[in-house]
């Protein structure tokens, strides 16, 4: 079976609003820097906090694994994820939705072109300016907040300082690219992306979600497409204010993408 033909790409752009403070830790985040125990990841060029595409994509994946009840059977670093271990398992029921959309590790004995690419997301320039000028940030673009963790054994209170991007910050546009390799099956898999985003909104991004951190909202969703038949052309597909609006219009949206992706231009 040839899976690798590319019919086209659906390109999603949206803003991500931090509804509550957002803490996405960086490498070396546990080192004490300037009195903060847990620092946020920053772009080394601009020194601005950002949302790594891998964090967002990983959260989307784990939410879908849970919603679909897939076993989280493979350890990647500190977390377990689901992957199909054999091609037979992957192909079952027309293809595993999670492994198809989010990919399988390279060492597995079968290949699958990953459908979804999620890029790193910067602060909007407006939001970066407001955070720089805002009196509520005590660090560059961020605030620090003391959290008290209770040691379960000794009952001792251990205060630690968390750095976080303040509530109200807006990142964007977040860009996600969905590759259409199989028609019409990949049209249905676009719904996986929408469901995953909805689930992330209801859960959280980054750390300390159980303390209320990391609630995000996706909005100003602009969807375009490029197709193999005229790749240099950008085709406008749809615009939605939020995920609920996209969900309401999903059948029409799917139809529009289907018409665009017909082989040879249609
Ligand atoms: Zn799978």
Q: Could you explain how this protein is built, in words?
A:
- The protein has 266 residues and is α+β, with helices and mostly antiparallel strands.
- The chain has one domain.
- Helices cover 26% and strands 27% of the residues.
- The protein contains seven helices and eleven strands.
- The strands form four sheets. Strands 5-9-1-10-11 form a five-stranded antiparallel sheet, sandwiched between helices.
- Helix 1 packs across helix 5 (185-202) and helix 5 packs across helix 7.
- The protein is globular and about 60 Å long.
- It starts with 7 loop residues before the first strand and ends in a 6-residue tail after the last helix.
């Amino acid at each position: 079976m040839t899976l690798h033909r590319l019919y086209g790409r659906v390109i999603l752009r949206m803003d991500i609003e931090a509804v509550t403070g957002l803490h996405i830790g960086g490498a070396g985040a546990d080192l004490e820097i300037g009195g903060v125990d847990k620092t946020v990841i920053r772009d080394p060029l601009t020194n601005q906090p950002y949302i790594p595409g891998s964090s967002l994509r990983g959260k989307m994946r784990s939410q879908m694994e849970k919603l679909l009840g897939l076993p989280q059977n493979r350890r990647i670093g500190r977390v377990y994820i689901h992957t199909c271990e054999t091609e037979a398992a992957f192909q079952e029921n027309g293809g595993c939705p999670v492994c198809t959309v989010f990919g399988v590790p390279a060492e597995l004995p079968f290949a699958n072109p990953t459908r979804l690419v999620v890029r790193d997301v910067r602060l909007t320039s407006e939001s970066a300016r407001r955070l720089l000028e805002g009196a509520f940030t005590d660090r560059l673009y961020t605030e620090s907040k003391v959290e008290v963790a209770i040691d379960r054994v000794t009952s001792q209170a251990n205060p630690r300082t968390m750095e976080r991007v303040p509530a109200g910050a807006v990142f964007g546009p977040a860009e996600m690219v969905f590759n259409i390799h199989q028609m019409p099956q990949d049209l249905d898999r676009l719904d996986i992306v929408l469901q995953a985003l909805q689930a992330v909104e209801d859960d959280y991004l980054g750390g300390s979600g159980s303390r209320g951190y990391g609630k995000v909202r996706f909005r100003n969703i602009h969807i375009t497409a490029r197709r193999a038949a005229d790749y240099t052309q950008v085709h406008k597909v749809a615009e939605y204010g939020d995920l609920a609006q996209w969900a309401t219009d999903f059948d029409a949206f799917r139809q529009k993408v289907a018409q665009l992706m017909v082989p040879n231009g249609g």
